Amino acid sequence: MIPALPSLITAAEATLALDEARRRCTVLRMDAGAGSIDAINWVLERGYQVHGKDISSVRAAGLAQSVAEWFTCPRQPGREVGWVTVEASDYVRPLRRLAMRWRLRNGHWKYALLLSTLEAREVMQLLNQPVDRVNDQRAVAAAYAKLYDLRGGAVEIEFKEDKQGFGMTKRSKKKFAAQQMVMLLGQLAHNVVVWARQWLRQSTPQLARFGVLRFVRDVFSTSGFIEFAADGAIKAVVLNCAAPAARRAAEALRTLLHTNRIRVRLGET
User: Fold this and answer.
1) Where are the domains of the chain?
2) Assuming Cys at both sites, which of 47, 133, 144, 204 could form a disulfide with 252, CB separation 3.0 to 4.6 Å?
3) What is the mean pLDDT of the chain?
4) Which residues touch 257 (CB under 8 Å, ≥6 apart)?
């Protein structure tokens, strides 16, 4: 078992006041790193619902041989899913197992195994899909896979966006203090983007929907210049009209800066 898993979950229980009744209504969606038999059983004994991958690709490949019918995933056409028919005797509570497979470049199959204590009706409700589809094995299998795919809707996606938008993987330092400073600057840059999107949400909702990469590439990279008054105060902001997001950025800045009596216009730079 991963040593950090029990301490992480018990800390969450204390913070969120997860008593026994609440744990029964809490779904833990976990990556394969937390999918050992011991870890899953520990979580099941705590009373949680589980929806995550098995840690062993070898076990996944073996159990996949019991799948009677494979279905193509609508979300990922190259991936197939199917129900494992062998009894799950290693776990302290009943759960369903969905095998997944996809072709590697060498033509061989790669396998993974999804473990879930959720009933089909519960999965459909969590995805806001029609409950009457519970009798359609293809639709149910696709729904289980989709619910797992959506596990990283927040943190993992933001990490990926930060790496792409800020080029974080290209700024590695050898000394600890230098790498720590890079990390802190990355956090600051992330917060600036989040704040900017919040500022723009009311005036320019199109820009507020941009991800980190597009925000850095299309908005923050807009060239221009600032005009100063004789006393040093900012008088005007001029954005390069040829920049992709210049017009929308100008609209947003006009809304933000109008109380400061700063003019915003498009021009050539």
Assistant:
1) 4-152, 158-267
2) 204
3) 86
4) 237, 264
Q: Name the burial class of residue 129, with classes exposed (0-12), middle (13-18) and buried (19+) by CB atoms within 10 angstroms of its CB.
A: middle
Rounded Cα gap, residues 126 and 118, in angstroms: 10
pTM of the complete model: 0.60
Residue 109: strand pairing partners: 103
Q: Does pLDDT of 210 surpass 70?
A: yes
Contact 165, 211 (CB under 8 A): yes
- 220-236 pLDDT tens trace: 888 899 999 999 999 99
Taken as a whole, the chain contains a residue count of 269
Across the strands, what pairs with 71? 81
Handedness of CA 127, 133, 135, 137 (dihedral sign): negative
